[in-house]
């Protein structure tokens, strides 16, 4: 670089030159091309990560569902339901609960209260059983 | 003011970046981690449950449905059909019911009304007699239905039938027909046997109640009249075949296999929702957190709760196995074991949340069972004594004389020792030492004890086992 050219330089450019920095900002075109080149090299990994995560999630979920399904089949095999031939046609539940008293339960007992609250004639096995166990069935 | 919008925009962008980051952490790390944990927990709890089921099946605790459900005999071979027909034929007004089954003392008016009731229900009694002499009975029940949909009206009708049979026995004994009276009470015990074939704990309790009703009826009948030795012997032989221990084990295994385990199956398959289940069971007493936990659990999906469901079912099965083992023990070991098991049931633990709602509290059941057995065995000895009286014209000085006469005497279920006996006036008293396993010399009768004042009832609450089981024949 000649003295003339140094002389003609702006002070700021001169300072940049002394620090080893480029004298001007890169052009917009250059910057776009450099960025684009960088983006191309990074794109596969950045895009693959969510796809891999989704795939891994799907595999894990499928594995979990397979385990659950296998368990269902195993339990159905070792604890079979009553054969259809043994299932009799049961009488329809009725709405008259007076028979509960004849069973030996006091009015205030849990079963009577529970059945009245339901306002239907369904007999709740567990509450009826527990009430009889707690109160005794008389005698 | 001019800087306000850019500042707001920058803040919003920061939030957006934050949300995106937390969503990324959730999707990339937390969700897979949760699924892995769920997968491992499901596999482990499922394997444990499977091995528990196999173990209990090999021990005979879990029985196949074919061994639990009574097969329905065809047409006229099924006593249940006749019981149901009899219930429809019953003619009994509320006034008659209150009069006949209220007072302990029976006067002329009582017997007049009782005779009318017996005469008006000839068809009812005919059907009952016919039913009790048929070998098999199976009431129509859909065992594949939800436990909520199984009806038990026929058990109430059976209990009422036992009272009606006692009523007919009282009339027959009062009118000088002691063998007819015994036959009527025999029908009651046969009815109890049919009810014991029903695979539920409720049926067991009702059959025990029927036995107690009939034993009390027999006490009154034998005080009122003396049957022939043949009738007494035949009745005693029938009572000797009573086996409440086997019946109670069958009831427990049925409750487990037909009603408890299916609840888990229905929850697992989604056939029953948590909400339906929690509506159908009572909340355990003293459980303050349960409502909150109930709602929290109710919103979880079938998939999400699978490991907990497996753990609950395993807990339930193991807990139930302990109950069944306790019921096989002799008194008082059985009662102590059952009380210990009942007290060890935790409250609102995730691994026992469902189990604790369907596990029966059996503290009183083992006591009720053995008390009924004690009454039935005392009744057997009383019938032997009546037969001895008919043959010898006097009651023996001791029960040893009965054994010498060829009678086999049952052991006291409370303690396993012999029954106690003494002559009392023109009659006698036979007694079991009762659940306190302490001989009160027949001074404290449970049945009389519970009819006393409020103070007596309070004392009974304090000392529930402090009495003898007594059969008193006092002409």
What does this structure look like?
With 139 residues, chain A is mostly helical. In chain A, 65% of the residues lie in helices and 0% in strands. Chain A is built from 6 helices and no strands. Chain A is rod-shaped. Chain B has 475 residues and is mainly α. In chain B, 65% of the residues lie in helices and 3% in strands. Chain B is built from 20 helices and 3 strands. A 3-stranded antiparallel beta sheet of chain B has the order 1-2-3. In chain B, a hairpin with a 2-residue loop joins strand 1 (420-424) and strand 2. Chain B is elongated.
Shape of chain A: rod-shaped
Strand content of chain B: under 5%
Mean pLDDT of chain B: 84
Biggest beta-sheet profile of chain A: none
Overall tally of structural domains of chain A? 2
Largest sheet of chain B: 3 strands, antiparallel
What percent of the residues of chain A sit in helical stretches (DSSP H or I)? 55-70%
Q: What structural category characterises the helix and strand content of chain A?
A: mainly alpha
Low-confidence stretches of chain B: 283-289
Tell me the fraction of residues in β-strands of chain A, as a range.
under 5%
Q: How widely separated are the two ends of chain B?
A: 110 Å
Oligomer: heterodimer
Helix content of chain B: 55-70%
Low-confidence region ranges of chain A? 119-123
The coarse silhouette of chain B is elongated
Q: What value does the average pLDDT of chain A take? A: 69
- The helix-strand sequence of chain A is HHHHHH
Biggest interface pair, residues each?
A-B, 55 and 77 residues
Distance between the termini of chain A: 122 Å
Radius of gyration of chain B: 29 Å
SS elements, strand count of chain A: 0
Features:
heterodimer, A: 139 residues, mainly alpha, B: 475 residues
Q: What's the SSE blueprint?
A:
The complex is a heterodimer of chains A (139) and B (475).
Chain A: H1 3-8, H2 11-19, H3 28-78, H4 99-102, H5 110-118, H6 125-135
Chain B: H1 4-58, H2 65-68, H3 79-89, H4 94-101, H5 108-120, H6 122-132, H7 153-174, H8 178-196, H9 201-224, H10 229-240, H11 244-269, H12 274-280, H13 290-298, H14 306-327, H15 333-344, H16 355-358, H17 363-392, H18 400-404, E1 420-424, E2 427-432, H19 446-449, H20 454-462, E3 469-473
Helix pairs in contact in B: 1-14, 3-6, 5-7, 6-8, 7-8, 7-9, 8-9, 8-10, 9-11, 9-17, 10-17, 11-14, 14-15, 15-17
């Amino acid at each position: 670089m000649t003295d003339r050219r140094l002389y003609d330089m702006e002070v700021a450019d001169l300072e940049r030159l002394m620090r080893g920095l480029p004298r001007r900002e890169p052009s917009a075109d250059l910057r776009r091309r450099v960025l684009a080149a960088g983006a191309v090299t990074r794109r596969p990994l950045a895009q693959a990560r969510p796809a891999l995560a989704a795939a891994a999630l799907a595999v894990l979920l499928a594995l979990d569902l397979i385990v659950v399904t296998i368990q269902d089949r195993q339990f159905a095999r070792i604890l079979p339901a009553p054969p259809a031939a043994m299932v009799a046609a049961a009488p329809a539940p009725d709405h008259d609960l007076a028979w509960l008293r004849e069973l030996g339960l006091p009015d205030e007992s849990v079963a009577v209260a529970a059945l009245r609250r339901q306002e239907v004639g369904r007999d709740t096995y567990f509450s009826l059983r527990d009430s009889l166990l707690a109160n005794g069935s008389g005698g | 003011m001019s800087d306000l919008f850019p500042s707001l925009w920058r803040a919003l962008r920061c939030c957006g970046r934050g949300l995106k980051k937390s969503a990324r952490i959730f999707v990339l790390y937390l969700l897979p981690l949760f699924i892995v944990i769920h997968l491992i927990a499901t596999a482990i709890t499922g394997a444990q449950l499977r091995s528990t089921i196999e173990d209990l099946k090999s021990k005979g605790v879990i029985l196949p449905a074919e061994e639990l459900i009574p097969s329905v005999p065809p047409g006229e071979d099924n006593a249940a059909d006749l019981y149901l027909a009899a219930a429809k034929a019953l003619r009994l007004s509320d006034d008659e019911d209150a009069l006949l089954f209220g007072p302990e003392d029976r006067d002329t008016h009582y017997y007049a009304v009782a005779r009318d009731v017996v005469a008006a229900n000839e068809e009812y009694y005919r059907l009952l007699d016919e039913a009790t002499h048929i070998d098999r009975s199976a009431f129509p029940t859909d065992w594949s239905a939800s436990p909520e949909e199984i009806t038990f009206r026929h058990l109430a009708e059976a209990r009422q039938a036992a009272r009606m049979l006692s009523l007919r026995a009282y009339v027959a004994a009062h009118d000088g027909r002691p063998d007819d009276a015994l036959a009527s009470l025999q029908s009651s015990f046969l009815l109890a046997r049919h009810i014991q074939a029903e695979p539920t704990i409720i049926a067991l309790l009702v059959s025990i109640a029927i036995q107690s009703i009939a034993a009390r009826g027999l006490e009154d009948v034998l005080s009122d009249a003396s049957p022939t030795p043949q009738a007494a012997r035949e009745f005693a032989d029938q009572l000797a075949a009573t086996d409440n221990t086997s019946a109670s084990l069958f009831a427990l295994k049925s409750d487990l296999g037909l009603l408890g385990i299916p609840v888990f199956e229905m929850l697992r398959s989604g056939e029953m929702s948590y909400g339906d289940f929690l509506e159908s069971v009572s909340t355990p007493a003293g459980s303050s957190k349960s409502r909150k936990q109930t709602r929290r659990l109710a919103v979880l999906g079938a998939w999400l709760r699978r490991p907990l469901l497996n753990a609950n079912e395993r807990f339930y099965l193991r807990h139930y196995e302990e109950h069944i083992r306790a019921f096989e023990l002799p008194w008082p070991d059985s009662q102590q074991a059952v009380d210990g098991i009942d007290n060890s049931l935790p409250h609102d633990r995730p691994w026992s949340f469902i189990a604790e709602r369907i596990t029966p509290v059996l503290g009183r059941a083992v006591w009720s069972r053995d008390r009924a057995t004690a009454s039935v065995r005392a009744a057997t000895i009383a019938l032997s004594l009546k037969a001895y009286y008919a043959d010898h014209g006097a009651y023996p000085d001791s029960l040893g004389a009965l054994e010498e006469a060829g009678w086999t005497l049952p052991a006291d279920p409370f303690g396993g020792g012999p029954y106690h006996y003494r002559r009392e006036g023109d009659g006698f008293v036979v007694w079991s030492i009762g659940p306190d396993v302490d001989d009160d010399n027949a001074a404290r009768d449970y049945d009389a004890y519970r009819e006393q004042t409020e103070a007596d009832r309070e004392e009974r609450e304090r000392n529930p086992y402090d009495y003898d089981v007594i059969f008193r024949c006092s002409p």
